[in-house]
């Protein structure tokens, strides 16, 4: 998911450089959504892994 966010970010940068502001804005929006979705999933899985590790240590 982070890979796709980076791809859309690069598309946004290139489109903005060539003057396609609508495409750049859309790609940046998609990249932002994917990045925050990745971040939320990462934090949830990290918390779950830490709590599972705490149960195994006991």
Task: Describe the protein in words.
The protein has helices spanning 2-17, 21-57. The chain is mainly alpha-helical and 58 residues long. The model has no long low-confidence stretch (mean pLDDT 92).
Q: Report the span from N to C terminus.
A: 34 Å
Principal-axes geometry comes out as rod-shaped
Oligomer: single chain
Q: Percent of residues in helical segments? A: over 70%
Number of strands: 0
Secondary-structure-based class equals mainly alpha
The total count of helices amounts to 2
The pLDDT mean sits at 92
SSE succession? HH
Stretches with pLDDT under 50, minimum 5 residues: none
Rounded to an integer in angstroms, the radius of gyration calculated over CA atoms is: 17 Å
Largest sheet: none
Q: Which terms summarize this structure?
A:
mainly alpha; rod-shaped
Secondary structure elements and their pairing?
Blueprint: H1 2-17, H2 21-57
Helix pairs in contact: 1-2
In short:
The chain is mainly alpha-helical and 58 residues long. It contains 2 helices and no strands.
